[in-house]
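During the second year of the project, the team shifted from modelling isolated chains to modelling whole assemblies. The rationale, set out in the original proposal, was that interfaces cannot be judged from single-chain predictions alone. As a representative example for this report, we include one of the complexes processed in the last quarter. Its constituent sequences, exactly as entered into the pipeline, are reproduced here:
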Amino acid sequence: MNPNKRLEDRNKPLKRIRSLIVILFMILGLNIIYYVIFQSDNLVVNDYNPRLKAIENSVIRGDILDSNGYILATSKIENNQQIRMYPYGSLFAHVIGYMGYGKTGVEAYSYLDLIRTKENLWDKFMEGFTNDLPKGHSVVTTLDLDLQQLGRTLLGNNKGAIVAIEPKTGKILAMVSTPDYDPNNISTNYSTYLKDEASATLLNRATQGLYPPGSTFKILTALAYLQNHEVSDFSYECFGKDTFGEKTIHCYNNTVHGDLTLEEAFALSCNTAFAHIGEQLDMNELHNLTEMFGYNQRMQLELETSMSRYGIQNQKSDSERAETIIGQGRTLVTPLNNVMMVSILANDGHLIKPYLVSQVIAEDESIIREQKIMDAGRVLSEAHVVLIESFMKKTSEEGTAKQLNSNQYTVASKTGSADNSTGAAHAWYVGYAPIEEPRIAIAIIVENVGTGSAHAVPIAKALFDTYLIEK
Amino acid sequence: MFEFYVGLTGLCLSLLTIGYISILAIQFSLIKHKNTERAYDYHRLQTVIILFFHLVAYTVLLYHYDFEYKVIMIYLGQIGLILLSGHIVNLYMNKTILPLWSIGQFLLVISFILLGRLSINLGLKQFYLSCLAYVVVFAVVLLYSRMNFIKYLGVPSVILAVLMLVMTNETINGATNWMRIGSFTFQPSELVKILYIIFLASTLTQFHEHEKLSLFVTGTITMGMVMIQVYQRDLGSALIFYSVFILMSYVYTRKRMYIIAGTIMTMVGGFFAYRFFWHVRVRIDTWIDPFSDIDHTGYQITQSLFAIGNGGLFGRGLTLGLPNRIPVVTTDFIYSAIVEELGLVVGLGIIIMIVYFFLFGIQMIEKSQNDFNFLMGSGILIIIAIQSFLIIGGVTKAIPLTGVTLPFVSYGGSSLVSTFIMLGILQGIKMNEDRHYKKEMLLKKERLIQQMLRDEENCEV
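Output from the structure prediction step:
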């Protein structure tokens, strides 16, 4: 046999193994590139990573600002130690969060940005001479200091939450949760807060508080009804109470509303009329609709959010259907989810996702990153929006929110009084203004004080007046 | 100031690595086109790059250790070793495989730098061990190139191998694969690998007429050794032996069936091992999600990933990372420390160098006329490639982690010496072949001359 041919035959398997090995090592290389380039950030922010402390100590943490440039959180060096300071004390406790005793809020979300710098090798070289620590990027939030302050004052000593959002952009303008705490001395009071479970001071009620939606849920019920019915299909005579299955549904204070159209039933928030809708409503339709409005899924935001839940145990039970429809069943909602509901209406049916951090800027004022508007598309037809909007307008003119009737702006509103097991009803308000060109949408909840009309609407009025007239 | 300088050196080391690898690529294509002379002209440049790499890194280490006398001496000693070994390779070994020596040297220098940075005493010990390794390697080259009878040593070497495996009596890092004699410990499995390759190559070439029988015998013995190692929890070595056997039986028989059967057996075996051996199951579960048990089983791999994630393109800078926080960093996890402080470019550079080591080796082995030499060489190259793959893949979470050393780089005498013995055998194969070739040429020449003489006589008659 030709010796060269023999070698060639003999070498063939080795050539194949060679290709195999080369491919295996290429996979290895790609895997390493993946970890070094793409996973680096995720790996750094882990409490088990000993490198975290070293990085933290090598920069001065950046500031957190409101949308007008007011400093909400800043760092300074005292006795060779970095101290985090919150000039407005408890005002932004739940949104901005705290540092040192773990991390929460924007402090946790923007953690890496705040300790990053734009330094190059040359800056590092110059640093060697001055001994100054570089300053991390600053984070600009969408919050409005004035609105936040007003909201906090209006809630006073009550427990509750306020979320205000700019519907067009999804910018969160204010987010108040009471009771609150001073993040400046969180480390001394932490255990006290933790023990007091009744106040749940550390809980951000705006994003994590789960409340029965009460009559604010009627917005969704009405929309579900309109999917398969005309407005004119509806008529009902209210006697102040009615029985569904073994459950008697009362209107608030047993008020007798008399003959009602759907619009009137909505504006007066008539419970019996809406419970009556339950007899004609496809409950699966309602289920789907709530999920389009963000129920049963975690809402994406820079902060931790709780999942709003639409729930009904037995769809066939008349009493449970009636309770679910007027927002008193197993359904629970966060104030954030409720403000998003009206924000979708304000955007003619488009879901624009909410956000809190609008910009990351370097020490030299150059913009590192900017949040864009996140349009998640249409969830509702425009015709339905127009109808519901007219109902909500009527509510502000003649209905449960008529205190908001103003000649300076038009408001779309819905109030609610959510019965609960802990005491008097929670007062709800959701709405937006001006209807023609919505600039602000609001959700308000005040715990255990009574009706939305009496306790939440005045807060809404003050917020609208300030934001729409004085600004 | 210091940080700025270290940053610059990081950039510099990355560039040197890129330059070195470009030269390897040029050399490879030149040798492929039978232009070996020109390829070897680059060797001097390679050595200069290695020395420069060493110098740049040591300026940082010298500053880091406050110009300690000891560090200066270590630096000078290492330069001496690089120059001297390079000189011997160049001078006394005509027909060397220069790129293999050069790659080994570069990896060793990276090892010197990293170990010196982790602890200067380790750096010193590694330096002593590598001096020993170089002495051993030159002996191996001389012996192997002259000893044609090694191919009959299959049986003795396998007996010795099994004895060494059984006689392990020391558990380190969970695996009972160490032997302690007095205060001296070493890892027999490192030398067993070489004995195993001798056994395999010898048995397969001697009984090549009874292909199935010889495969059955070697297969059974391999199984036995793998089982011993699994029992000792040395999963890495077990995996190396197993995969080397499968690949070698493919090289030997040229039948794809063996690879397919081997793959199926791996899957079945892996499944049963996962079901019935908890320490196998722990490894695989940890590989899939190390973060869920970050305190215990996931600790090593997550710490390794933290270090790698911190590396960036050009590294955090020598002495500026936290590689001492990685567990077993001097041996198994040294690659993670390299990526953290020297960066992605150097890290990928090491992978490419190992691949080129394999490619240059195959380029040489392919020309071998002697089948025993051919199997020996293939086995050694496959072992080096698989071992590097297992450990680099393991610490970067590409595959489940099995603790083996990274050839040329990891700290440790057993590993270093056995790696250098393998390099020596490769070189020995080359010289053995050349001697054989020379002898044949001489014989041919003699025959020709005699023929001519006879022709002349005939004419005269």
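Residues 43 and 98 of chain B are 7 Å apart (CA to CA). Chain B has a mean pLDDT of 90.
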